[in-house]
């Protein structure tokens, strides 16, 4: 069995107390628990403080463009579906500039895990209001309070037909690692949103603030993550922040449907030109 | 289309063209593609030139089909036959008829269309719709009647027409459908024969048809991609590039390839990059605004050194422009666009063979030099069908560049994905390979792929990446020279404008002006030495291109300092050049 140290690489440089330490730790624990080989894992990150994560996670890593985690990760997964592919993104990266991709990756049910590290602010660019910041939130971009309503990524994922929808808290690494472990073994698209304080720029949504609002779904009497009506009701609660596995359903994953019957990964295809077959195709143009 | 420059009429026996005019939805594209195929099988060179609106139904739509003894054709400025589905379209287009030509119109109006003197052309009422309705119960059959009518006017062998139609319908629709269509074709022949006397029609006759194809540039690129081992294609629908996708979607499954429709072009290029990074040969295609959306990931491909191929079929811009018509106005976007400095290769095929060959080359170049490669064509090349010599499948090779195996990796003391090398190329590993673990960074990074921002590293890495642009030159298609080396007049051109330029050159020679042409086939890295050399041997030089501002002209001027004045011959009419446009520009030039 692998240990979480097998995925350790170098020392992170995030601010002391940043929620991302918890996210990194949980991801390492999950990979170790699943006994994944670092060579068969690809971590794709976007732009934001989360983007440093794959510099500290021993696996194949791709730090791409702001908001484009999902199409990049989808390309990797489709070219070699034997790989375990996880995207790590932020609330700005996934829910603002990358929202178009988010909805469609959920809809297509492409078999990858997206970890959205939600600190409700743009940390790397020194603290602007984000799409998950609450109405009235004051920041350098909205000094007199935000006049925008926040969005809820879990509700969007549910509406888009999501097959694995979950939320964790970076202050509770154990349960978060458990969610990631389930997410990484899910065949379709899996969302793990992580409530993750920015200790430098967000003095509102602190560890204490999040902790006092958590609602642990596994402790809810009669909660069933297979029941979509219960999931909607849970997500509709305005007073609390549900954490845990909110919804899960089995449905065919995109790669299972489009790659059905293929013996080899696209990336392993024999590319030597097959003259006879090409000749046959050329005949169609005569 | 002023013909006052007096371009000589072509011998009908050597060159004949027809304009089919109707509305979008009339099936004109189908008709013209069948006709092109039939002409090819008679041993003729054929070109279709579509002039379609960007909607599905109701707006004017037309196609010219030209048959000739010589290859590499331009759009004709006059046609020998007009076949119109209604009087309004006939009136709009009758100015294109050559003196003595034949006009067939379905319309119900009394007088012949237009104000032309009756002797200028022969006019006939040809009732393709009515006959289709009455004899076959549906107007759908009008196109078969048209094909039969044109078969008679061109003097085509009806058995050839029949066999092309049979091939198209037998598998998909069955024998009964084939039979009714063939009866409609026969009716078309008969009706045209009743109308037009034998001596007025042309008789093309049949020559040997060996080793030739008829297809569009989009199809040639798609076929090239398949042959090159492309197995991943991601794109967003856009005219006039979607035919690349459509062809691959049909032909990929047999080769275990995958086509993915993405939510937008941002996703299309990023997804192709992800697949390429994971080891598949990957491609996307687009046009106009789609290219603008790809600029972001274009830079990422340059920085992260990911091999990817982008086919960009230019249309009329800016913005949505005229999506179904031709232009060459995205040239500077791909050569100079996108943020940051990075190596890129931009190829501009000018013939169908080049569409195929350059696509194969593009996949090899992308992997050899680990950079994005763009195939830049235009709507005229992409969507119009032409005849071409067979593609040389024996020339198809797959060179994956410095791609390491696990054994190679095991032999390395340390693998550095972005190792600094004399030629700028760093050996590459793929996800899943033992010993190949690495980080790919869009941020500036060190040899191991980790973010590093200091000045010394920045300079080293920038120079490493940009060195590839020099290393790759030896493998790029050089400019191609056409015509007499000693000619005083030189044309510089790109893409499908080539046909019209070469044809104009032939006509100018008949009028005592020798010309030569330099077809620039690699736009970037720019072949400055070859262009300078060519210009030094010209007394007058014209840059011929399909845009308003002279983007090729700008590119040339930015890269070489010729002593002579570079003149612009521009066409931004949303139509391909006709040879007459170029002849007029040269003859009208007073220097």
Mind explaining what this structure looks like?
The complex is a heterodimer of chains A (286) and B (591). With 286 residues, chain A is α/β, with parallel strands linked by helices. Chain A has helices at residues 19-33, 69-79, 91-97, 99-108, 153-159, 173-185, 207-213, 228-235, 254-258, 275-283; strands at 41-45, 60-63, 84-90, 113-118, 121-122, 128-129, 164-169, 190-195, 214-216, 241-248. In chain A, the strands form two sheets. Chain A has an eight-stranded mixed β-sheet with strand order 2-1-3-4-8-7-10-9, sandwiched between helices. Chain A has a two-stranded antiparallel ribbon with strand order 5-6. The longest helix of chain A has 15 residues, at 19-33. Chain A starts with 18 loop residues before the first helix and ends with a helix. With 591 residues, chain B is an alpha/beta fold. Chain B is 38% helix and 20% strand. Chain B contains 19 helices and 21 strands. A seven-stranded mixed β-sheet of chain B has the order 9-8-10-11-13-12-19, with helices on both faces. In chain B, α7 (217-227) crosses α12 and α9 runs parallel beside α10. Chain B is globular and about 85 Å long.
